[in-house]
Design goal:
extended; 5 helices; about 110 residues; mainly alpha
Length: about 110
């Protein structure tokens, strides 16, 4: 990952994130994709992404902390509702969503 004038290069960040998501040995290992491939031409990828997101949503619906933890890597990074900085690590994520796991309001779905 390269840093230019204090900002991360978005392309490198996206490639590294995609490689981690799909278990690639290296985000740079394969030939470059020169053009976007529409979702309708990649149904297996679309189905895998939707299934992954659904497992996370089901974790919230059923207040299942183990499902939420399983849906994120240990070195998770991201923004959470109301945050002004990037959250780092699974424990930060779990602490931020702990309110949903303890809420007396139960969702259905």
């Amino acid at each position: 990952m390269r840093i230019r004038t204090g900002r991360l290069l978005v392309a490198g960040t996206v490639l590294l994130a995609c490689g981690a998501l799909w278990g690639a040995r290296s985000a740079w290992a394969g030939p470059a994709q020169l053009a976007a491939v529409p979702g309708e031409k990649r149904p297996e990828d679309v189905a895998a992404i939707r299934a992954h997101l659904d497992r996370i949503f089901q974790g919230f619906i059923h207040q299942d902390g183990a499902a939420l933890r399983a849906g994120h890597s240990t070195d998770w990074r991201g923004f959470l509702e109301g945050s002004r900085h990037i959250g780092k690590g699974i424990e930060t994520y779990m602490q931020a969503v702990s309110w949903a796991l303890k809420s007396p309001v139960h969702l259905t779905g």
